[in-house]
Amino acid sequence: MNNENLIRLTGVTKTHEGAGGTFHALREVNLQVKPGEFVAIIGKSGSGKSTILNMLSGIDKPTSGEIWIGDTTIHNMDQDQLAKWRRRNVGVVFQFFQLLPTLTILENVMLPMDFCGIIPARERKGRALRLLEQVGISEQADKLPALLSGGQQQRAAIARALANDPALLMADEPTGNLDSHTSEAILQLFKGLAASGKTIVMVTHERDITKWVSSVVKLADGQVVNGSGLYD
Amino acid sequence: MEVVYMISVRWRKVLGDLWLNKTRTLLAVLAIAIGIFGVGTVLAGYSILTHEINANFLGTHPASAILYTENADDKLAAAVESLPGVANAEPRRIVTARIQAGPNEYRRLLLFVIDDFNNLRVSTFKLERGNWPPADREILIERSALPLIKKEIGDTVIIQTPNNGQDHELKVTGIVHDPGQSPGDVDNIAYGYITLNTLESLGETRALNELRIVVDENSKDVTRITNVANQVRDVMEKRGYHVSHVEIPNAGKHPHADQMDSLLFLLEVFGILALILSSILVASTVSALLSQQIRQIGVMKVIGATTYQIAGLYFGSVLLLGVSGLLSVFLLACGQAGHSRYSQRKY
Ligand SMILES: Nc1ncnc2c1ncn2[C@@H]1O[C@H](COP(=O)(O)OP(=O)(O)OP(=O)(O)O)[C@@H](O)[C@H]1O
Ligand SMILES: [Mg+2]
User: Fold this and answer.
1) Which residues of B touch A81 (CB under 8 A)?
2) Residue A64 covered by a domain
3) Could you tell me the pTM of the whole model?
4) Segments forming the whole domain that contains residue A83
5) Number of domains present in the structure of chain A
6) A232 in a domain, yes or no?
7) Which residue of chain B is at minimal alpha-carbon distance from A57?
8) Please, which residues bridge with residue B304 across strands?
């Protein structure tokens, strides 16, 4: 087995059955990601970026092909196994933050620890506070999400994704809802996390993404497009 | 702060959501409370009306059959009691009279003539206060008639019997409770209990015209009662008593059983309506909560919640609503208990 790559996709195909016949969201995608890499997935709308990310987070399953994360195959797991695998291994960051509105920032970060039970109850609050400090918003801990700016909310969401200390972070257009200045700060944060050992896969439409990430994967019509001309 | 964290984060979310929609939450609790209260009222109504009143009534040894003759007496009663199938027999007479309730104001009065007040066996009643048995020219009055005739123990009542239509004065010496009679104040009728001597002094012939019997078992089986009653009739006719007719009162049923049934039916309808209404309100509250939180449910699943954990949260909120509803009914019922203890005395 190849221990050099943390993520390996081989021949991953995803089809949707619709009124107009079979639609291919992904066709025979092969992809490898090494531990600690910060990978950007780019491509036009509808090219399959979110589909591939959802496969990696265990939210969606391929129609055919194999997905290896470390020593584990996740393409043949059922919903329950996937949920349990995801708890330990993947943190997810959304475009629209998706903090729960009736919980404080601190409680939002503690919620995954509560659901998963990996972190002992006594340590949860302290850990959540440290994570908020790490993303730079510890002063906002006791506020409700609605009182925070978009950038602050996304920082809180990143802290929440790190709650159970997963090796992988999946982010679908995490800066898609932020101004360019705030976007840079968030990308900087991701870059720092990657440097500290997290493996990050991020779908993005940002220009000049190469200065933040370690590699770029371009998708077109559900296929990985190799070679030059990334931004056409 | 630390105290608050005793509740886990996910339950704080549930509480937060319920608190966020205070009005809706309150409505749901109210709906549950009304539903429980409705059903509770129906159940309580059933248990009180059917069980307690029936027990009261059956405790009076209601007559299974009444045989009408010219002159029923103790000797006849003793002979009939020895027949198979007969548990008790007692001679009686009921005279429909009038009682003065005010100047030129008369009410219907059922006069129960009793041979031996110290040996009641059929259609019994109990003294509530005053003296027992009544002496000659004294009368006991059923308690439900008191508001009707506005008299008390020690007062004199004026009575007219059908035979001569003259006013006769009797002294009220006791108040009885007779569960076998429908409430006098509801039916606008008074009940009095007198001796044979008193009857005679009212200008009526000194005779009892009913033989009331109670069968020894299956007191609700009409065929059996009919058989026993016919046997008793045969024996009576052999002994020279003429039986003009045999009456079988609604077997084992309270005199107001039909009215009670319709009252129960109304209660039932109201209870069921309240329950249906509250169920609809609760269902719509919960479905509103769910549809409002579809996205949140998805997010919770992605950050590690299992389907069971999420189902647990929403069941938990429903349970919380239910318990709150139950608790408010409980408090309401505690307040009611004092009141109903008071109003029960009336019946
Ligand atoms: N459940 C589904 N049923 C049918 N088609 C689907 C389904 N989910 C996704 N698709 C299709 O698959 C294709 C890829 O979708 P995906 O969401 O991965 O695109 P994307 O690259 O993330 O686009 P965007 O940049 O707009 O987010 C799209 O054409 C989409 O319409
Ligand atoms: Mg997408």
Assistant:
1) none
2) yes
3) 0.67
4) 7-224
5) 1
6) no
7) B302
8) none
